[in-house]
From TrEMBL:
One of its GO terms (cellular component) is bacterial nucleoid. Residues 1-507 form the RecF/RecN/SMC N-terminal domain. Keywords: ATP-binding, Coiled coil, DNA damage, DNA repair, Nucleotide-binding. May be involved in recombinational repair of damaged DNA. GO terms for molecular function: ATP binding. PANTHER family: DNA REPAIR PROTEIN RECN. This is DNA repair protein RecN. Residues 151-185, 335-369 form a coiled coil. It holds the Pfam family SMC_N. InterPro entries: DNA_recomb/repair_RecN, P-loop_NTPase, RecF/RecN/SMC_N. Belongs to the RecN family.
């Protein structure tokens, strides 16, 4: 419940601090006194957008602070989900700076407007006459029926299943689209894959083949130079090997005379051994070298195949060709894999539909039982409110479609008078009738839901006399289980409140400002008498006011 409200520098309010009690509070005042300003301030606390026109003094910031007792609202999960400190006495503060920027805080933690709006829905229901149009909205009508039916758990379960079902349908659609695209490219991908597989590509193969090709293609030149190298190395009298042996023998004769000569002798010996190995390898290569036109042709063909594939796929290495081969292999295999996934997805959707159908049937059955209860209660209350011949025709029939809250199609029709045809509420009911129906609905919902604080903003427009008295009685009854505010011009309703606040204008210097005052018992008699007879209060009006209050 709303326990206190503080307003500073908002519209015509310079500074206001007021405490509220539970049960039924009345707010009255002349037209233009500032009742709408109070609602505007509460609207800002609940997350409505603000602008600089809200500031009374454009040089100072506007601050609106509301304190709520929320121990019974089960809001701990909301606070935890939004990383906010939960306090039984929760304070919401809204600041509008002269720059036009707006800030909001819950228990001193900054929040954005969306979070504030979501929290506000749990705290206050501000109901004005134009909001009676909600009665014509199907979702609101379902909410009324489901509250009586006790479908909260089932609806939550249904919504979770519906979300899963929609995800399954979306995934299946994506898989089918992917399969369709893959199938179009299947033949071409298979051809490309077979072409690459036929080439039997191996890592490092290209470099090896290019080396082999160069050797086979230049075998005569290689052999000629190998033979010449061997001839120079092995010539009997002037070959390199013969000369090295001569040098080696000569140095060995003087090696003992000096460490330098000995070092040179050892180095020549080392060169001689290394060169001997070189000559040996040259002989082996020369002996193994042969002219093989067939092998040259095979190597050339394989290289041409590799080059053609590289050009076709616009790459430069066998590594890249092998990556393409693996990718094509996955694409070709994925068609079969996708088909299997689609079959699995279709099976999951069938199972999901069965679950949705089962819980939607349960929801429908509970609604069928709740509709006569709702109709009976509505008629009983509306008869008290001057609508003795009112009738409702409410039907919830199962359809083939999955809606947000079940599979029902809802028909919610209304007839105000005997002999009149049933019609849609928004087309058939007058403004006064809609106000009374909405009051009846809220009264019924209060029996089944833990409603937040409710503010009725001139819901009594268009009624008077005994009907106003009954409306006040209904609000009074609602206030036994929740906090109720009524902004009213009717003395019959004003007299029903546990506490009575008056909004009025005053002049301070050159400034006009709105103020809110909790009336004493005597002041309340005078206020209700004025509502009965105007500014010139008669004795009969005073007596009538006392009678209403008693």
């Amino acid at each position: 419940m709303l326990t206190s409200l503080s307003i500073k520098n908002f519209a015509l309010i310079e500074k206001l601090d007021i405490d509220f009690s539970e049960n039924f509070s009345i707010i009255t005042g002349e037209t233009g006194a500032g009742k709408s300003i109070l609602l505007g301030a509460l609207g800002l606390v609940l997350g409505k957008r603000a602008d600089l026109s809200s500031l009374k003094n454009k040089e100072e910031k506007c601050v609106i602070e509301a304190q709520f007792e929320i121990a019974r609202y089960n809001l701990e999960p909301f606070f935890e989900a939004n990383d906010l400190d939960f306090e039984k006495q929760t304070i919401i503060r809204r600041e509008i700076l002269p720059s036009g920027k707006s800030r909001a805080f819950v228990n001193d933690s900054p929040v954005n407007l969306q979070e504030l709006q979501e929290l506000g829905e749990f705290l206050i229901d501000i109901h004005s006459q134009h909001q009676t149009q909600e009665l014509s909205e199907e979702n609101f009508q379902f909410d009324i029926i489901d509250s009586i039916a006790g479908n909260t758990k089932e609806i939550a379960e249904y919504k979770a299943l519906l979300k899963k079902y929609k995800n399954l349908k979306s995934n299946l659609s994506a898989l089918k689209s992917k399969l369709q695209d893959a199938s179009k490219e299947q033949d071409y991908n298979s051809f490309l894959l077979e072409e690459l597989l036929a080439a039997k590509l191996k890592l490092g193969e290209q470099e090896e083949l290019e080396s082999t090709f160069e050797q086979l293609n230049n075998v005569e030149l290689i052999k000629e130079n190998l033979d010449r190298s061997l001839s120079i190395a092995e010539e009997e009298q002037f070959g390199v090997l013969h000369n090295l042996k001569e040098i080696k023998a000569a140095l060995q004769k003087i090696a003992a005379f000096s460490p330098d000569y000995n070092s040179l002798s050892e180095r020549v010996t080392s060169v001689s051994i290394e060169f001997d190995d070189i000559v040996s390898e040259l002989n082996q290569i020369a002996e193994s070298l042969m002219n093989d036109p067939e092998q040259l042709d095979l190597v050339n063909q394989k290289l041409q195949t590799i080059y053609n594939l590289q050009q076709k796929h616009q790459v430069k290495t066998i590594d890249e060709l092998l990556e393409i081969q693996n990718s094509l292999d996955e694409k070709v295999i994925s068609v079969d894999s996708l088909q299997a996934e689609i079959e699995t997805g279709e099976k999951e959707i069938t199972e999901s539909e069965a679950q949705l159908d089962a819980i939607a049937k349960t929801i429908n059955e509970k609604r069928q039982k709740a509709i006569p209860v709702l109709t009976e209660k509505l008629i009983a209350i509306l008869e008290l409110l001057g609508m003795p011949n009112v009738r409702f025709q409410i039907e919830a029939t199962l359809s083939e479609s999955y809606h947000a809250n079940g599979k029902d199609n809802l028909q919610f029709l209304f007839a105000a008078n005997k002999g009149s045809d049933f019609g849609l509420l928004k087309k058939t009911a007058s403004g006064g009738e809609l106000s009374r129906i909405m009051l009846a609905v809220k009264s019924i919902l209060a029996q089944y839901q833990k409603l937040p604080t409710i503010i009725f903003d001139e819901i009594d427009t268009g009624v008077s006399g005994e009907i106003a008295h009954k409306m006040g009685e209904i609000m009074k009854e609602m206030s036994k289980t929740m906090q109720v505010f009524a902004i009213t011009h009717l003395p019959q309703i004003a007299a029903k409140g546990n506490s009575h606040f008056k909004v009025f204008k005053s002049t301070v210097g050159e400034q006009t400002q709105s103020e809110l005052k909790l009336l004493s018992s005597e002041e309340r008699i005078v206020e209700i008498a004025q509502m009965l007879s105007g500014k010139d209060i008669s004795d009969s009006a005073i007596n009538h006011a006392k009678a209403l209050l008693n």
